[in-house]
Amino acid sequence: MPGRPGAVVADLARLLPEAPPVIVGLVVNPVAGLGGPVALKGSDGPDIQARALALGAVPRAATRAAAALTALHRRRPDIRVRTVAGAMGEDSAVAAGVPYEIAHRPRPGAAADGPADTRAAVAALAGADLLLFAGGDGTARDVLDARPRGPVLGVPAGVKVYSGCFAVSPSAAGTTAAAFDGTTLAAEVVDLDEDAYRSGRVGVRLYGTLRVPAARARLSGRKSGSSAAPPGSAESIARQVVASMAPGAAYALGPGATTLAVGRELGLELTPLGVDVVRDGVLLASDVTEQTLHTLAMSQVTHGVLSVIGGQGFVIGRGNQQFSPRVLDRLAGIVLLATQQKLAALGGRPLLVDSGDAAADAAFGGHARVVTGYRESVMYRIQSASEDL
Fold first, then answer.
1. 202-242 pLDDT tens trace
2. Which residue from 48, 77, 91, 108 has the fewest beta carbons nearer than 10 Å?
3. Domain residue ranges in the chain
């Protein structure tokens, strides 16, 4: 009597070797992003980190890493997570409620937040099919220095996040990891050029490239500058912004070359990478923290003035963490600025918001008016960076 076909298939399946489990590694820089809300521009170095904590900064990298793991596990519960003990990964896995295994323990007595600890963790996770790392551009440089054997993907948790090796949001990182099929592309690692910054110029320096999943729609892309814009573009936008300012209202000017032009139009010298508040042409507060900005917004009518990050499209959550969810909730309105060339370079991709709060981000869904010149503006699509692009 011939055997049943289903039984034969089952017998063959038992004879075939099982496919090895997919392993995703995770490294977290627990102090990444500390300096943003307290106006320190970055979080590199123990002195800056200590100062940020003293000013009331709250670590958020672990929370953002947990959000990435949650999105990953929701789509692929079969994927194994391998990580680092304690704050460098384990805490995030516990918070996300995902099964995990420890592959590395930081050296005894280490602060678990230095470049050497990140490099050691990357080396210990060399067997992962994909390595997630939560941090900012400084963390990306540490990962690059560790020369990872396989592909990596950044979970954005730093202050600036100018490099192209990051997903647009933590949930996008998890979704990308869940769908990863082994196809990769090269993404640039850049960081603030500190020598140029000390000379009064804001620019980024290229350090190298990392292999990342080929999911361009979910990658933030490298920040591009405004050097290609025709002369006078920023000045034209600045004239329109100043002409539209309401008497008696305060305006919080975010970082960026275009907002610096607004300051020049007002006859003021603004903080290149900070948030300054003006009212009736007078500098009300310089280089404010999130706490100061919230206090100001609570006490008087305040508008936000934010420029689009070239090449990425972010308007909230990259270098301007002073505009926290609670600050956004108190603002009377937001003025968005971008040259037409900067918008065109996005190739139809939307403007992005990543405040760290889903409800605050969702409030931006739809279209927003963007000032592109004197008496010129366009309606442009804007959405939460956590939405599937």
1. 677 899 999 999 998 899 887 776 544 555 699 999 999 99
2. 108
3. 23-218, 233-384
Place of tokens 């050691």: 120
What would the mean pLDDT of 245-261 be, rounded to a whole number? 96
Helix, strand or coil for residue 81? strand
DSSP structural state of residue 310: T
Q: Write out the two tokens for 285.
A: 């507060």
Contact 26, 83 (CB under 8 A): yes
Say if CB 155 and CB 166 are below 8 A apart: yes
User: Strand pairing partners for 186?
Assistant: 211
Quick count: other Cβ atoms within 10 Å of Cβ 352? 28
Half-sphere exposure of 383 (CA within 13 A, CB side): 12
Q: Do 162 and 137 meet the contact criterion of CB atoms below 8 Å apart?
A: yes
Q: Which two tokens stand for residue 201?
A: 């110029």
- Kindly report the pTM of this predicted structure: 0.88
Question: How far is CA 74 from each of CA 114, 150, 239, 315, rounded to the nearest angstrom?
Answer: 31, 24, 48, 28
CB 189 within 8 A of CB 152: no
What is the C-alpha to C-alpha distance for residues 209 and 170, in angstroms, rounded to an integer?
A: 21
- Look at residue 358 and give its three-state secondary structure: helix
Q: Find, among 296, 288, 234, the residue nearest to 263 by Cα.
A: 234
Q: Is the pLDDT of residue 51 over 70?
A: no
Digit-coded pLDDT (tens) for 62-113: 999 999 999 999 999 999 999 999 999 999 999 999 999 999 998 775 555 5
What is the rounded distance in angstroms from the CA atom of residue 272 to the CA atom of residue 58? 24
